[in-house]
User: What shape does this take?
Amino acid sequence: MFDSEQQKKTLEILQAIIKRAWQDEAFKRALIENPIETIKKVTGAQVSLPTGKTLVVKDQTDENILYINIPAVPDVIAKKQGEVELSAAIRAVLGFNVLLDQTAASA
Assistant: This one.
């Protein structure tokens, strides 16, 4: 399932961070305000981001709201803007095929 031991460790750290944020409001606020420092302080893990990237943590715990995160367009897709390529990229990013009920939209 994982390409490397590092990916497995990263997933374990992320799971621990999310679990704690669900249970500890003060931790969640600190994580949102300063994610890199908070992760390092709590887990000892150093967050390494690619040059020019920023880590943003958003609180999406409101059960009455459904969120859609719009990811960056993958470089390979940005060069080919055809409908087939974009659909394939979206499925790859989501990890599944999205099915929407279009009856309401067409009514």
